[in-house]
Amino acid sequence: MTLQIGPHSVQPPVVLAPMAGITNAPFRTLCREFSGGKGLFVSEMITTRALVERDAKTMRLIHFDGTEKPRSIQLYGVDPVTVGKAVRMIVDEDLADHIDLNFGCPVPKVTRKGGGSALPYKRNLLRSILREAVGNAGSLPVTMKMRKGIDDEHITFLDAGRIAVEEGVTAIALHGRTAAQHYGGTADWEAIARLKEAVPEIPVLGNGDIWSADDAVRMMRETGCDGVVVGRGCLGRPWLFGDLVAAFEDGGDATYAQPSLREVARVMLRHAQLLGEWLENEERGVIDFRKHVAWYTKGFSIGSEARKKLAIASSLDELGALLSELDLDQPWPAGADGPRGRTSGRNKVVLPDGWLDDPYDCAVVGADAELDTSGG
């Protein structure tokens, strides 16, 4: 089963979702290793303003390992002109092979500027951004990721899907939640099926509540979507991509990873090491890794004091020593599967003043509407 993104064949049809502060080069490396290099692995969010201004952090984030093919960048922007400049820069300087546009982020710092999941409500602004991106992309495929809408009263995904097709977008990923839901409740897979019916011309990818390889297979079967985008389900479980390859290639005969704590500890140390090498500072790498500790150790029998110590380790030696003190022979626990990461429920979406007054207004919100930093 193959997903076609422009000239790129993605087999199996599995994509790592861009996640701020998570899907940097080290994490993508781990996921690719477990998948045998199969699938598509997207960078964390890159803001177009920061890219055009060559912000130092942003230039680090867009660095790809020589083995990453295709190189996939997700861009965030609210100003069509700036988005166009960023895409042209990527093309002219050969920075990536695929560009994804973020219209799905629900966090307040993004939506209050009219970006992320707030933006598709402004149909003409969305069209202008897509037109600038596709028009400047040359031969690079441009895709987009979005949510159902702002809230249940302001659903936008079907209109946005038709606009995307008309403007030459190559594929669309839909997270089956509104911005108001954030990451709470249950993803609406029926919306993914409706989008697939509405835009049969291009691939539609489903996102939301894929916690296992079986969930991915079931989503494709139930919705008719062309591929899946996996986000929170792989937090602390980069080997999920190996499971996904097995599920799509071996079908009912697939064997899934159930690592012992000893095996998980090895992955944890490698992840922290890769972060240190990428940041060119071991201590910074281990500190950055701290946020992953709870995800990796979920479900295992580890005392609260040991968990606290793991979450404040500052060197690879310290992290390794603390891990060695655990009962590493523990098998994979049943409680380690299922939802992980953020699970916040409904929230009021922070929007610019008057944002909902006119869905066809094309104005960008203020001179500072573009964020000036990338990632988390």
Automatic annotation (TrEMBL):
CDD domains: DUS_like_FMN
Classification via Pfam families: Dus
EC top class, as a word: oxidoreductase
InterPro entries: Aldolase_TIM (IPR013785), DUS-like_FMN-bd (IPR035587), DUS_fam (IPR001269), DusB-like (IPR004652), tRNA-dHydroUridine_Synthase_C (IPR024036), tRNA_hU_synthase_CS (IPR018517)
Entry keyword annotation includes RNA-binding: yes
Binding site for FMN: 18-20, 74, 145, 175, 231-232
Keywords: Flavoprotein, FMN, NADP, Nucleotide-binding, Oxidoreductase, RNA-binding, tRNA processing, tRNA-binding
DUS-like FMN-binding domain ranges (all copies): 16-319
Positions of the catalytic residues: 105
EC number assigned by the record: 1.3.1.-
Catalytic activity: a 5,6-dihydrouridine in tRNA + NAD(+) = a uridine in tRNA + NADH + H(+); a 5,6-dihydrouridine in tRNA + NADP(+) = a uridine in tRNA + NADPH + H(+)
Annotated PANTHER family: TRNA-DIHYDROURIDINE(47) SYNTHASE [NAD(P)(+)]-LIKE
Known role: Catalyzes the synthesis of 5,6-dihydrouridine (D), a modified base found in the D-loop of most tRNAs, via the reduction of the C5-C6 double bond in target uridines.
Family named by the database record: Belongs to the dus family.
Protein name, per record: tRNA-dihydrouridine synthase
Source organism per UniProt: Streptomyces cinnamoneus (Streptoverticillium cinnamoneum)
Lineage of source species: Bacteria, Bacillati, Actinomycetota, Actinomycetes, Kitasatosporales
